[in-house]
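This section describes the prediction task in plain terms. A model, or a person checking by hand, is given the sequence of a single protein chain and must write out its three-dimensional structure as a string of tokens. No templates, partner chains or ligands are provided. The sample shown here is typical of the held-out split.
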Amino acid sequence: MSFTKEKSAGKREIPPYLETPTGIFTVGGVWFFTTKSALKEFAGEVLEKYPLENLIGEAELWVRSTDKAGILAGMLILLIFDWWLAFPLALLAGYFWYISKSGLISNWLGSLIRFFDHDFVIVTAAVVPLSWFGIQEMYGHLAAGFLLFFIFKFGWFRQFADKMQRSDKQKPTLNDRILKMVIVKKALADGISLKETEEMEKNLTAAIEKTREQHKSALSRVKGKKK
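The expected answer:
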């Protein structure tokens, strides 16, 4: 187990992620079931150009995008529909983004997500419609808006969806698929052939599944010792 540190001139070193034998855990609370050695083995050509810290940071940004997309969709839907209909529609919109984002990874959309990832921007985007609801005495909309903001802002919706998604033991997690797609997109952008990229994707998936099985085995042993 080791911390990987990111150095900045004149600033305190910040450990962006913790590497363990069964995966990579970021300071933002995102878990990837892969290891640095596996990524170097199967995607070494990409890692020669892009530091692993940057790739993990970009993948984590996409993971967190569910929170921002849910807030934005919720506020927009509340402006259109009655609160009792808008609330479930906003949750559905958030879930649609949650399950679809790994297939939407691109540079231009990534730049937009990075813009809304700033607290000032996303809070402002929520405060404007919430203030209007208060001025118009639309208290149902105001309450629903605040509830949606907290559900998504603090990652509660994403965490619940993660737990539901992990019940499918046969597939890589969405977080792992996002990291894999970030690496594959970089490979394609750098001119690595489609055949080589497909082989890289296949090997990365196998490595992720192997690490996930090791993680489950480690958890089983810990539970066994507790009993």
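For orientation: Residues 6-10 have pLDDT under 50 and may be disordered.
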